[in-house]
Amino acid sequence: MTSGIRDIEISKQILEKINFESNNLSKPITIMHVCGTHEYTVAKNGLRNLLPDNIKIISGPGCPVCVCPTGELDLAIELSKRENVIMTTFGDMMRVPSSTISLFKARAQGHDVRVVYGPNDAVELARKNPTKEVVFFAIGFETTTPSVAFELINDPPSNFSIICTHKTVPPAMDLLLNLPNLELSGFLLPGHVCAIIGAKPFELYAEKYRTPMVVGGFEVNDVLMSLYYILRQTIKKEAFVDNTYKRIVKREGNKKAIQYISDVFEPVDSVWRGIGMISNSGLKIRKKFEEFDAVVKFNVKIEEKIEMPKGCSCDKVLIGNIPPQKCPLFGKSCTPRHPIGPCMVSHEGACKIAFSFREII
Ligand code: SF4
């Protein structure tokens, strides 16, 4: 079922179809994706320059590291400074600037901050260090949430806890489709997220906003085919959720993973860095599991902060208001080696991707 997804001859054929159909558009269209891996495919393959002039593809808030709020990051740094704490997180979080320092700098100052590949590694660390408190800084969209839920369900040791900053993608649709100065004609939906929750949660937004949406995979022809499907819906004045990633994504999603998530977490209003509060877009640990909630265990508070570092335009990049290259700091004072904003840190950040592929727009 995967033959052809990287075949350049097929890419050319889909591009021809897109070019042909684009002549039927009554006005230029803008399609947003909300996934760092889609941005990677778009930039790596130079798709923006291959599409006709009347089809623009922009990047939305698809990088969980980039939208992780400063308040939670500040808390992770503060806890990492405690004598008996081992702070653990994904590698991408290490260099994200907080309102003071980064976790990377906290480690350089001698605090015990460790990179793990997943929550299971953090649980293992807690088992091996029973006299320490091991905290996992849990970030990510629906793709990473089930593995965290799985660990909490399966009796982790009592010296394990998490800072929960998990976010959910569908509630962000309301905000994105109401942004001033940005008329979105369609969404390329994130295949990884939909592999967990299915395509169904997006249906109400396609209908409510009369906006075509297509679930897409991550190979070049997955993305091109999805763009073509969005284009066809636009021309036919249709608006529904289609799926070009049927080899992985089912309408109903992965029922087991969905069950894990809902057993452990409940929806809560959540702050997205650079964007603000989005109602019901976050996850909170249910009371039944609160002994593993670092906020409860350490009796601390999280401050609601959305600000970006001074001079950084990540807030505009994250909602597709400007491309990374239009930030005055891009490639000058802000580079992957010396990132100023979170979008230049993560492999899923639009600025890092644009810089890595020297994307010219
Ligand atoms: Fe932020 Fe750097 Fe991107 Fe500018 S180039 S928006 S400072 S991450």
UniProtKB/TrEMBL annotation:
Superkingdom of source: Archaea
InterPro entries according to UniProt: Hyd_form_HypD, HypD_1, HypD_2_sf
GO MF term set: 4 iron, 4 sulfur cluster binding; carbon monoxide binding; iron ion binding
Name of a matching Pfam family: HypD
Presence of the UniProt keyword tRNA processing in the record: no
Keywords: Iron, Metal-binding
GO biological process, one term: protein maturation
Record's keyword annotation contains Iron: yes
Record-stated family: Belongs to the HypD family.
NCBIfam families: hypD
Record's protein name: Hydrogenase formation protein HypD
Gene designation per UniProt: hypD
